[in-house]
Amino acid sequence: MTKLSDAAFRSVCDYFWKISGIRLTDAKRALVLSRLHRLALEHGHDDLDAFIERLTRGQLPKAAEVAVVDRLTTNETYFFREPAHFADLRERARKHAAQHGRKGDFRVWSAASSSGEEAYSAAMQLDDSLGDSPWRIHGTDLSTTVVAAARTGLYALDRAQNLSTEFLKRYCLRGEGPYEGQLLIDRKLRARVDFQCANLTQPLPDQLPMFDVIFLRNVLIYFEPAAKADIVRRVITKLKPEGVLYTGHAESLSGLGLPLAAVAPAIYRHE
After folding, report:
1. pLDDT of amino acid 31
2. Rg for the chain (alpha carbons), in Å?
3. Average model confidence (pLDDT) for the chain?
4. 127-149 mean pLDDT
């Protein structure tokens, strides 16, 4: 039976924190054991402690380091999660169209986009509200695996439980044959969404533009208060003066000394 020593567990937790900013608690020990054991075997190691020692000493290929982040990052999401934000997005997009017509580019950033459901949900909402007017969705995530998956736009049907019948028909193609039980996001919609890797605890990619709306949802819960505040400060440098930040409804920004004011539950703007 595979074992994970206390020393190896602490070592890999420290390693993961340094590269991701996320603290793994003792409650995650079984997850670490399960996921890294499989990874160790894939790299030809049946001794997990020895694999972790080589990993933390920088003696493994870069691909193994990237894989550790992919395996230990939690990626649970679905379409139109926390729907109040998408209702707010619809109204903001319509107000933008009324004020700017086709002249203003409306941009949304899904800052922790995971496998892309959030970004494509925003894209459906903007296409419905703005149509052919200029708009764009950007998605970023720490995990290379989920970024690659998001770019395909291919999902299991059970991820679409919150999708309206109208949106399902307009924006998704049902799989047949070997793709039975899956859906593919329409090509026209995928063309309006791009994904890239980014670590929110590090300087942001230079090419990121300014945004009207930023989704930063259900990721801050994994960080300690100081790191959480640093991430939010970094992210809102990309928020337009009249733009808003969406956080998860279970996440609180109170007590962090941030230059933000709440305008509705889990919706913030610059003070």
Report:
1. 84
2. 20
3. 91
4. 93
pLDDT band at residue 1, thresholds of 50, 70 and 90?
low
Tokens read off for 35: 């996921």
- Residue 256 CA to residue 254 CA, distance in Å, equals 6
- CA end-to-end span of the chain, whole Å? 55
> Band of the pLDDT at 101, cuts 50, 70, 90?
confident
Which CATH code for domain 84-154+188-270? 3.40.50.150
Q: Catalytic positions, please?
A: 35, 141
Helix, strand, coil abundance in the chain, percent, nearest 5: 45, 20, 35
What is the C-alpha to C-alpha distance for residues 58 and 64, in angstroms, rounded to an integer? 10
The model's pTM: 0.83
User: How many Cβ atoms are within 10 Å of 156's Cβ, its own excluded?
Assistant: 11
Q: What is the CATH number of domain 6-72?
A: 1.10.155.10
Hey, what are 21's tokens?
């900013």
Q: In Å, how far are 58, 85, 150, 211 from 248, measured between CA atoms? A: 35, 9, 20, 18
Same fold yes or no, 6-72 and 84-154+188-270: no
What's the pLDDT at 34?
87
In the chain, domain spans: 6-72, 84-154+188-270
Put the strands of the sheet holding 239-247 in their side by side order: 193-197, 135-141, 106-110, 211-216, 239-247, 267-270, 260-264
Query: If residue 6 lies in a helix (H) or strand (E), which one and from where to where?
Result: helix 6-20
- Alpha-carbon distance of 71 to 145, in angstroms, equals 9
pLDDT recorded at residue 87: 96
Q: What is the predicted pLDDT for the residue at 196?
A: 96
